[in-house]
Design brief:
The protein contains 7 helices and no strands. It is mainly alpha-helical.
Length: 208
Amino acid sequence: MRARSFGSVVVVLFAMVVSVGCKEPPAPQIQEARVALDELAQVAVDQWAPEAAQTARQALAQVDAELKVQGDKLGFLRDYQKTLELVAAAKEAAIAAKAAAVEAKEKARAEATEAVEALSKSLADAQAMLATAPTGKGAEADLEMMKADLEAVSQAIAEAKAALEAEKFGEVAAKVQAGLTRVESVKTAIQQAIAAVAAAGGTAPAAQ
């Protein structure tokens, strides 16, 4: 009787071990994590938040490594609790990477927009200064050159706005910087021309 009871206990324990140990990998959760990683490409995470993207990929790699560890064990020894924890961490890392990319992109957009606005204001100031530039003998060629420079800056602003619309923020920055350099050069030339007239004790007529 005692032997039969002992045998029953062994059978029950073995069944419990098998039922616990042979659990399948948490496939649905793992798939969710993989989908979350795949979605990172939609917001260009590698461009806007490369470090966060790498962290997310490493988290998923840990999931794959843990799956291999458990897969190499005998069925009744497998335990996917740690796998579940790693899957949750991978999903969180993917969500964080996506948020970081969106934030970085919006920051770049705001900075590019502000830069274009600053260049537009600087151009308007230069155009106003040009109207006060002295004219007269020998000044016509310089004035025409300065007008051409400001027209080129106006074109650069249009191109920068198009690049901004296309989310090419690096191109926006390059065009704005070139435009600012040109505008400042014109402003300096106008100031020097006005100063030269003043030093000569004359008042040359302003440009029309």
